[in-house]
N-acetyltransferase
Amino acid sequence: MLNLKGKHIYLRALEPEDLDFLYQLENNPEVWEISGTTTPYSKHVLKQYLENAHRDIYDVRQLRLCICNTEDRVIGLVDLFDFDPKNRRAGIGIILVEGERDKGLGGQTLELLCDYAFSVLDVRQLYANVTPDNEKSLYLFEKMRFEKVGVKKDWIFFNGRYTDEILLQKINT
């Protein structure tokens, strides 16, 4: 069985007790640009989401996992989204809470999830969408051998302005 554990973090499925963490994260306007969120989520809606989080990636086309530190505290989330088993690809996104960034944890997380996607889900390629001003994410994905393959001009409208989105891709050869 594939181990979703790194040196300083591990990945696990969402649990009902993650409700407060999700509520805080999803309702933080500072991350709405990267998540595509435009309105706050109620605890009721997030509770319903958690009740369905066990559904199979082949059914719902996405997988969200908690990033936990060695003290079992949730410090972020990592997602596979737009899972396309026919074309063997998926999008990947990651968010770590403030105070947990710049410690190498994002790299460990991406390494674990890429290994899982390539070996268990038999995905051939993963892609990420990052805005040009998100220099830390661009650095992280490039460090993990994702290549910049394109720019989507004026792709995101947020806070009254348009911004580009860079498409990065990692192919399992």
The two ends are 22 Å apart (CA to CA). Residues 105-119 form the longest helix (15 residues).
